[in-house]
Predict the structure.
Amino acid sequence: MRRVSLIVCLMSCTVLSSVANAISQILEKKVTIRIDKRNLKEAFDLIAAKVAVPIIYSNSPELFQTIVSVKSRNQSLKVLLNNLLAPYPFAYQVIDDKIIVSHHTKNTLPAVPVKTLAPVPVKGKVTGVEGDPLPGATVRIKGEDNITVTDANGEFLLADVPLNAIVQISYIGYTTSEIEIDGHTPYVTIVLTADAASLSEVVVSTGYQEIAPERTTGSFVKVNNDLLNRRISTDVLSRLEDVTSGLLFDRRNGTPKLDIRSRSTILANDQPLIVLDNFPYDGDISNINPNDIENITVLKDAAAASIWGIRAGNGVIVITTKKGKYHQPMKVDFNANLNLGQKPALSKLPWISSSDFIDLEKYLFAQGYYDANAANTVNPKPFTPVVELLLAAKAGTQSASAASAQIDAMKQHDVRRDMEKYLYRISANQQYALNLSGGSEKQKYYFSAGYDKNLDNIVNNGNSRFTLRAANTFRPVKGLELNTDLIYTETQTINNGLDYRSVSNGASTAIYPYAQLADSKGNPLAMVRDYRSSFVQSAEAKGLLNWQYVPLNEIDNSRNKSILSDIRLNTAAKYNLWDGLSAEVRYTYERSELNNRNLYSQDTYYTRNLINTYTSINSNGSLNRPVPFGGILDQSYSTINSNAVRGQFNFDQRWKENRISAIAGMEVRQVEINGNGNRTYGYNDELLTYNSQINYSAQMPTYDGNFNFIPYSNTRFSGRFDANVSYYSNAAYTWKDRYTFSGSARFDQSNLLGVKTNQKGVPLWSIGSSWSVDKESFYKVTWLPVLKVRASYGYNGNLDKSLSAYTTAVYAQSLAASGFNYANILNPPNPELRWEKVGIANFGVDFSTSKSVISGSLEYYHKKGTELLGYAPVDATTGITSYKGNVADIASQGFDITLITRNIDRGFKWYSNILFSYATDKVTKYLLQSTSATNFTADASLTRASDLIAPIVGRPVFGVYSYKWAGLDPATGAPMGYLPDGAISKDYAAFAALKPDDLVYHGRARPVVFGSLRNTFSYKNISLSANITYRFGYYFHKASINYSTLLTTWNGNSDYASRWQKPGDEKKSHVPSLVYPGNTARDNFYNSSSILVQKGDNIRLQDVNISYALDKASLKRIPFQSLRFYLYANNLGILWRANPSGIDPDYPVLPPQKTLALGVNATF
Amino acid sequence: MKNNILYALLLLFFGSIPCACVKDKLDIKPDKTQIVPTTLTDFQALLDNTVTVFGSNYIGAAEIASGEYALSYTDFQTLSYLPEINSYTWQKDIWQGTAAVIEWDSNYKSVFYANVVLDGLNKVAVNYSNQSDYTNIKGQALFQRANALYSVAQQFVKVYDSSTASKDLGIPLRLNSDLNEKSVRSNVEETYQQILTDLNEALSLLPTTSVSKYRPNKCSAYAEMARIYLAMGDYDQAFKNADASLKLYANLLDYNSLNPNPTTSYPIPDLNNEVILRYGMSSYQSFSRTIGKIDPLLYQSYHANDLRKTMFFYVNSDGSVGFRGSYRKSSVPFSGLATDEQYLIRAEGFARKGMTNEAMADLNTLLTARFKTGTFIPLTATGSDDALLQILAERKKELLFRGVRWTDLKRLNKESRFAATLTRSLNGTIYTLPPNDNRYVFPIPDYVIAATGMQQNPR
């Protein structure tokens, strides 16, 4: 079996051990076929289609010249192939469930004497496992100067190859392979396997073109299909988390924000552009079914992204969908999984305990805190049951001992327990996806259907998504390719539940901690809300509707549903004009509709409250109800219509040692967003009747004696329009497959308000170069067969369309009380307004050691954002208090390291993927820095609330600042701090008046170092991978008690329990003593002091994926080509954290819920 | 051949895109609701922004410091807004680092809006068809600017004194919408001259009647000038303007027509007969009728037949009295212009001229509309000084929670016979504010001082 050594195939991870089995399985396949006078190539294709096994062959002329006929009736494939090939100089071999055909040398050439010393020329071809040629692969004789590169057909010729020489073949993104030349083989076919562990693949896509990584000069990260499917989720983007170098999911604001490398804007849009196939995606990204996605490419630097111009400032994420393949028998792929998630651990909410809260209420009661409201009979705010009991005891309507007993009983309740029990459940997300794909010579197709059903953690919340996709490509005549791709998505979301934040006792108060949602038998209980219970009872006695708020009934009575449907059509025609020159036209249409219907039946508190609020009592005692009985129906409807056309010329030509590939084109894009909403009063969902006689025009008397207009819908009309015209070009020149120079330029125009058309454009450009050092003949480092260096520089842009060079105003959509239309000034004039520009320099090295034991890349970048928009606090005397303009610069830099190591690569395999990113940003210019310390110590930058960011020159955009802590006053427990002169002070106003420079600067609010370590172990059919992620170098403010807030909103922190109560406590605790009346300045000082700032650093076990793959070889008589079961657990927990408080700094309020998914993937 | 045809078609296609649709599309507004204000309609819409800009005088801090109400210590302790706490007890530092002082910011926001309109009007071509709208809008803008500057002046500068006005620190006068112009303090003379110049010009431009009490007219301009001259102690001019205003509009609301139900929250209608121009006041927690308790002496001073005793006040369950007489029919106090105030100004003007009978006639006209029908016995005065005393006492009773008391105190303190020391008592601590104290002038917000370097008021 010397032939075996001619064909080299290294496989990535799983099925190596089953190869022997697989070979026999494939060859035992029974075939019935009749081939009449076809050439060998066609015969292979027909057989491959019949048995659904790829047959790979080189494009040797003999294949086309040899005409064969063969018949088989239920013969095994082995017999058929043996019969077919016996007369000809070909042999075959089964590798990795593919059949690879090569020249069978002994019939054509005389045997070469074994010990011939004369070197021989070696011809050959390098292909991928699908038989696709790999042009540009490096072929070298180990230890010698002899080196060459494969041509456009993947073929190479090495002259003077000594016998028994080792030939090393390397290609970026593929496992490096080595073969021994034995002199018997004038033509070798070398099959390289894509490195499954590697990040790059055959090509990367920019949305405008596909580029082989060999010739890229920019910074790309490609996440391939296997990696995408490692994580189980309903949406696409979360699958990038922790597997994409340089991409950080920033959760400070709750919903994650994506940061590609460090920040390059302050106030403009800070999210990357999402491109679906070739065009930006305008709909809701959660609409995209991840099962339809083949891979994702993230474009990080200017050379990669500047082709997207003004929208590329924050990087670009290019999502590529699955497509059929030419010459492929129909393949059916089915995927189903169930993902279960824990209930949130509400007991971890740092709330004040019931007993502490009740003691506080008793104390406040003694201070007379409740007297004013108790005397209020017009619109008394709600009192908690304890205060009502205290009042009753004081008034003598209840005995003091009975009241006290009831109060003590209430201390035992914890509303968090009730919430966990009645508002939450185990979440269950089901996902089903089925697709069919395949193709013939002239056509390929992909059809898919997907269904997701998600039951949220919150009872009565959830959504379901249905997706359909049909993609077809035709080649009706030679050189012409037509493409249509239609995607339809419909998502229904039910939002009837209550979360722990939405149960409250009224507009300004949270819920009291001892509230009970249900009695011991589970019957829903009423709670005070908006008004005192005595007020509510007396109103009901006067004939008003039941005014009780029963939270659990609200969940059942809510009917809030939205339907989001999205249809997207992508069409393209591509025609080869001349050799190497093609023209293409692409058109995309997308329409997204969001329908929301929220029916508040008369059973809901919302409706009853509104009816009652507007009920007034006439002098004869009759009731006047301008808000009618019946339900209130709010409906809103919004659409996004997007059209884009692109015309582009592609040029790709190779002559001698030169290669040019270039594109140039023009794109027109418009997006129109319209919305409206309405409200119907007195609506009856059974009869469809409603009340058309609502008086919106006059102020109506309210029950509390005020006058107000009846509220109309809170959804307004909206009409937005975005137009962009862009001209772009991108060219790369490669010489000798070693040196690549690239350049791109783009000119964008957009419909900015109040700017003349000819000022609406901005030119953006990039240049780049790369050098494949490994292809130089002087390069002899055989342990490092792949070495490529690259550098790029260029500009991306960013835009904020809400701004204008002129004073702009916006009309309010409803009338003022005066009955007139009125307008607000939106922004003051800014004749200097410009686009933001981000200059990026990127340097990268790609490498791979022998046999790809260690491979990876190292990149350094430096970004400079100039003319960035910033809010500048201005002299309030001007009439505006802040001003947005091009006032800022940011410099940021960092590096991304990606390493793939094959630690053990035998029957048992162990690979590691290491991602390490370092990203910093620094404000280098800010014209009008905020002078108020409170702007820095408030948590604005911590929550990433963009309009509150207050940058300081020399510091990062998101910094953590505080007042220097000096402990508690031993006599009073008052918080103390150090003033800049070193004096210990309790003058809280003096702290609030500090200059920003006098604050303690701790560091960044966003991790500086982040990344992951993913270990994959596989043995036979089982594969296990675990991802450990880490984030270092950042800080956060721990939440603590704020007494003023506690008094007015009932929101208390559990730190209350450890407050200073008596001298000596200051040694054990840093929580200040309670003071009444609340002192906001004191509370603000404490909550902004350095004692509460903690390090965010942490290491967590993010997730584990276990999969078990069966294949045809392992299981006889099942109709599957492959069958894989998987188990996936996510959010497994923090392994180490720097802060001693046990807080998860990335989820500061509630730790994320652990989820466990199990699923199956089958192909047949 | 086939290739070339396709090539030509493609070129044609690409070439036609820009011509056909692109250029026009780039001129479409990105948001339909957004405009660059250029038309008279736009400017009127800016001036009609009574919701967030022109609906209020933003003199709440002054009302807290001068209001005829008292807070119990327990209620005082429930206050959470620092400027409210400090203003009530006349602290030296009112704002204590408060980041947004509406008494300054919002009044200057009104000035900015007015300036945007005035600057914009310069670019509008006036013709026969738009001339009346144009002058009306310009008049409104000038009026609003003057009104906002006056609200600032009431709170942040000393009372006008012709002997020191050109030396006393005034307010920054921002007269155009250019943000780059530095804010510098004028003197008090310049401050009042600018306000009066604006009002005089407004007077010549405004129509005699306006379509709504939300928009100023000639009568409003006279009434506003009467108010301002009174504040300046120029009683002759105050008299003339009040008289001119009353000649245009002198209706009074007969309180006998109101529903006397003691539980009605706000018995006096919005936009009633007496209202010339509707403004509210920035509302604070202490204005609530359950917290801000009316001085019992003041309450008792109303005659039993005086309907104001019913219409103005709400008796709480504990017997304390709160105010419910807002001409805005809500918890927000009314601080706009109304004829009752003009009668009082004219009466004071008569009295200060020594015209006792005319002064008492005006006072009696007003009170007739206040007393139960048939019960009012016209008041008489022994002389002009007696008349003045009666008028000032009535002024205090009629113009409760109207945003004029602070200014009245400031101007009357200049006359030793009327000078008063204010006191407030909380938990045994007595706070006093002697006449002409520096604390009658509020400090300029710290952040304004920091941004402009302008001189702070001494406290």
The longest strand of chain A covers residues 658-684. The two ends of chain A are 32 Å apart (CA to CA). Residues 753 and 802 of chain A are 8 Å apart (CA to CA). The mean pLDDT of chain A is 85.
